[in-house]
Please model this.
Amino acid sequence: MDFSKLDRSELIGVVSGVLLAISLFLPWYSLGGDVVRDEEADWVCGVGSDSCTAWGTFPILKWLLMLAAAAPLILSWIVIRGHHLTWPRGELTAIAGLTALVLIGFNGFVDKPSANDIAVSLSWGYFLALLASIGIFIAGGFRAVESGGGGARRKPPATF
Model:
């Protein structure tokens, strides 16, 4: 195990992965306090609760985001151990970061978790998760380019 093989991109990826995992337990959505909530469906985060975490809101997405948060740690393990891969190192981490970015963006800007859309706004934990997924994507992309990615060694189709 050679920790000197770790580059700045892996360290940024690990920090971003840890931040993404932590952000799942921070408030992602907040409810406006000046709105009258007379139906139980109006309390998106639970009756009497004014903020929601991703961990409590999303039954499946939380596990997908935890996998995306683990991707930079797995990449660092591969780099430290010197494993040989059939694809550029970091490529799968970049894909995991981009997937997390799309899923987080969709659940914040397109489809907020509210049946009646009553004053649900994004909170600071959401933006931390968005930033962390961008960090994972960039860190994986830089590692993929550094390890010979980008199609530089590929042959065109039907060449022998």
Summary: The mean pLDDT is 79. The two ends are 38 Å apart (CA to CA).
